[in-house]
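Lab notebook, design round three. We kept the backbone fixed and only want residue identities now. Task for the bench partner: fill in a sequence for the structure below.
Input structure tokens:
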């Protein structure tokens, strides 16, 4: 395929720009095949790796977000393989096989620790005078997923593969100087650093909230003005339990009554579902309400637990329902609905009190199953919960709610930063904004 520019009518492209096979780029940029910008591309080691050893072997899963993730490592002690495949500073690694959405993921090795690379990765040995490592990393991670189709060597059983020959034919938009490439990569790297800093801050805040919950919700730390023993209540003393209305995911749509699928509890990022605020995103089931038992209709303050999970941590997953408008809301398949018997727990406190390690351990203890585990309506009433006074519950919930609000502000900033970076990539990698 030729890299010659394909000119559109003058009125279609802004002056100073040209239409090419990779899109509109500045007149002084070129489109070159990756093979013309590298010494070669090199497949990684096929040596057998093990769970411990001298040198890490980086695999497909270690290429994440343009950088290397040093978790889930395997190792080798093979001196011959280490000498042949040892990574060099600024090596660009390309994932050549896996599912369609993972092929083409690229990361840069920054000398974090000695390592070699495995056979499903390709090392791109750049010509330093023609191609900046950071620029290549951003180009491939940004454009490859959109344009990779023409380069796929084979797709079988959901598996896609790109070989070195096909990779070298990939078209790269190239600014006229290495200096401009470096400036683009530096600007995007600064944006990444800001995002990573915000990620770390959010993780720290989440850890602090988790620690606060473990202290405050178990009575290990008491707030000023509160003293005295907490009562310990069984779930059965606090709630009546019932099941949900069984419907498959295929039966759900955007029409009908709100429906709480157990998969949406597992996938939730918060422990509340607010019918008013979340209405548009809640799946719907279009059936007459008379077919649904009253006990399966969710009211404000109800707690809904899952009764099935693929792992121990998931057995205690739950949401607290906020339904001030009393809209019909059907609890679904594999759910256990907890409706209050008493007014001993405030609605706000329920949003937090089931999230302690002690509660999770009780769920795990009473769970049954092998591949899929879960708790039954017969066992869940046996669980116990320490219950402070209503004023202390209100104070604890207020503190944790403030922490949630602070996290929400930071998470909104993080999303804003990510969108800004996306915009930067769109402008910088196409030359619509020039830095030099």
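Proposed sequence:
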């Amino acid at each position: 395929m030729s890299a010659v520019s394909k000119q559109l009518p003058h009125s279609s492209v802004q002056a100073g720009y040209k239409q090419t096979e990779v899109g509109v780029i500045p007149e002084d940029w070129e489109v070159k095949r990756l093979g013309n910008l590298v010494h070669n591309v090199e497949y990684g080691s096929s040596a057998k790796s093990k769970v411990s050893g001298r040198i890490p072997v980086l695999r497909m899963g270690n290429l994440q977000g343009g950088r290397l993730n040093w978790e889930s490592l395997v190792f080798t002690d093979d001196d011959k393989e280490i000498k042949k495949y040892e990574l060099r500073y600024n090596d660009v690694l390309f994932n050549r096989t896996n599912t369609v959405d993972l092929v083409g993921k690229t990361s840069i090795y920054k000398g974090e620790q000695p390592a070699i690379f495995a056979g499903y990765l390709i090392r791109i040995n750049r010509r330093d005078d023609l191609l900046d490592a950071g620029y290549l990393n951003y180009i491939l991670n940004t454009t490859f997923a959109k344009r990779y189709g023409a380069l796929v060597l084979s797709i079988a059983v959901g598996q896609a593969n790109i070989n070195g020959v096909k990779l070298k034919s990939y078209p790269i938009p190239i600014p006229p100087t290495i200096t401009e490439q470096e400036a683009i990569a530096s600007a995007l790297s600064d944006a990444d650093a800001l995002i990573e800093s915000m990620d770390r801050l959010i993780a720290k805040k989440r850890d602090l909230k988790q620690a606060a919950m473990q202290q405050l919700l178990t009575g290990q730390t008491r707030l000023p003005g509160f003293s005295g023993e907490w009562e310990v209540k069984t779930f059965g003393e606090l709630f009546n339990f019932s099941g949900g209305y069984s419907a498959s995911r295929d039966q759900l749509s955007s029409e009908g009554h709100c429906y709480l699928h157990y998969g949406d509890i597992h996938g939730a990022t918060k422990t509340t579902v607010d019918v008013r605020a979340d209405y548009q995103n809640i799946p719907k089931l279009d059936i007459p309400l008379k077919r649904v038992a009253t006990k399966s209709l969710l009211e404000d303050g109800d707690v809904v637990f899952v009764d099935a999970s693929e792992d121990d941590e998931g057995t205690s997953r739950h949401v607290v329902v906020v339904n001030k408008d009393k809209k019909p809301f059907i609890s679904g398949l594999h759910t256990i609905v907890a409706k209050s018997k008493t007014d001993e727990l405030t609605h706000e406190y329920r949003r937090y009190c089931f999230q302690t390690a002690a509660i999770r351990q009780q769920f795990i203890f009473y769970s049954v199953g092998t591949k899929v585990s879960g708790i039954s309506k017969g066992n869940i009433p046996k669980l116990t919960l320490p219950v402070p006074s209503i004023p202390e519950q209100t104070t604890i919930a207020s503190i944790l709610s403030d922490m949630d609000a602070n996290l929400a502000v930071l998470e909104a900033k993080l999303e804003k930063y990510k969108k800004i970076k996306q915009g930067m990539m769109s402008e910088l990698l196409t030359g619509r904004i020039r830095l030099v």
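Keep this in mind before ordering anything: The chain has ten helices and 26 strands.
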